[in-house]
Amino acid sequence: MIWFPYEQMKTRKEPWKILDAEGVYLYTKEQKLIDSVSSWWSVIHGYKHPELNEAIISQVKKFSHVMLGGLTHESVEKLSDKLQSWLPGDLDYCFFSDSGSVAVEVALKMALQYYMNQGETKRTKILSLEHSYHGDTFKTMEAGDDEDYHFVLNAYGPSPYVIHIPTEIPALEEAFLKYHQELNCFLVEPLLQGAGGMRMYDVAFLERARQLCDQYGVLLVFDEVATGFGRTGNRFVADLVLPDILVLGKALTGGYMGHAVTVANKKVFEGFYDDNPEHALMHGPTFMGNALACSVALKSIEIFEKQDYMSKIRRIEAITRREMEGFSDPRIQEVRMMGGCVCVEVKDASDLKGYQQFAYERGVFSRPFLNCLYAMVPYVIQEEELIKVLETMKEWFGR
Ligand SMILES: *Cc1c(COP(=O)(O)O)cnc(C)c1O
Fold this sequence. Notes:
The protein has helices at 38-41, 50-62, 74-86, 100-116, 138-143, 147-150, 169-179, 203-216, 266-270, 291-306, 309-324, 355-361, 383-398, and strands at 20-22, 25-27, 32-35, 93-97, 125-129, 162-165, 183-188, 192-193, 199-200, 219-223, 245-248, 260-264, 332-338, 341-346, 364-365, 372-375. By secondary structure, it is α/β, with parallel strands linked by helices. It has two domains: 20-49 and 307-397, Aspartate Aminotransferase, domain 1 (Alpha-Beta Complex); 52-306, Aspartate Aminotransferase, domain 2. The strands form four sheets. Strands 4-12-11-10-7-5-6 form a seven-stranded mixed sheet, sandwiched between helices. Strands 1-2-3-15 form a four-stranded mixed sheet. A three-stranded antiparallel sheet has the order 13-14-16, covered by helices on one side. Strand 13 (332-338) and strand 14 form a beta hairpin. Helix 3 packs parallel to helix 10 and helix 7 (169-179) packs parallel to helix 8 (203-216). The radius of gyration is 21 Å and the shape is globular. Pyridoxal-5'-phosphate binds next to helix 4. Residues 99-101, 104, 133-135, 189, 194-195, 223, 225-226, 249-250 line the site of pyridoxal-5'-phosphate.
């Protein structure tokens, strides 16, 4: 049987079976649902996109996969060239992997080894944010800070290798002052912390982090697995503040298949590039650079550019602000918006119990978590469809 994610298998509710999907819609036997979650924030172009389908079909006719150890192919070369020119600054060196968690692992390994290669063996610690989420593998759980996902780590006690701080500049300055000699990197979900509760913070915090990283020689790592490709209303937060390592996943392939990339700048790459074989990055996921994933990712980026997706996201944000401005209820703690993300945080998580079914009956697929009722819609959504998603949220509190 299928062992489903994040759920007690004994008491869980039956999942809805999807028979077809097209545009922003998921189809069950009896319902047509707007996917307000974009399949975990990844399906930015909607389902069954003709051009994305075609990219996969034409690649599959050549081959679906060849390993990247000792081999290369056109799709991975084109994608890395595209990312190199499309991403800001000198974020030019693309290490591919099969999921966001693995790509964050790669970033952390790069940061640690970057210093080891220079004989600096004391920089073993990661600075990270409270409520951060970086994936479900062990090191990413350790770097993350969310009991709801990672309580199994309690078995090990507190980690001596990770320092968590709130998104406040004084705490940031204090942490650098105290730990800078031991830090290899500052790992952050920039501007929007997703799975830890859709928390939003100001860019000034990241600007100060960049200064401190430069001052103390610590690498700045942006985990843009969730925020990349426009979700915050910026193409990448890396367009505002330049990190040393950037991690992309989720929407990289337009949500078509699992793939991710860890992109290093020149300084990081050069920390590995010399005559010593031991200075090589010893990592290589079996399916890194998968040809189907690379061909669909390249097409996804082309569509994002050609159809001016940033203007679509600005439109989503404007409609959301218009519809949600002034909306309140005694049960609501706060309504937050940023780019293509809106979150209604309730005071008591039990106030969201039953919402998923309520939304289902109204033709919206939603998946609240923690205290968050949120929407991260596909960017191709029409105005009336987006209004329906938001109206459904408001209606829940109006009962
Ligand atoms: C989803 C997510 C990950 C993990 O990606 P997977 O592909 O699920 O392994 C890592 N970091 C952030 C910020 C995420 O939102």
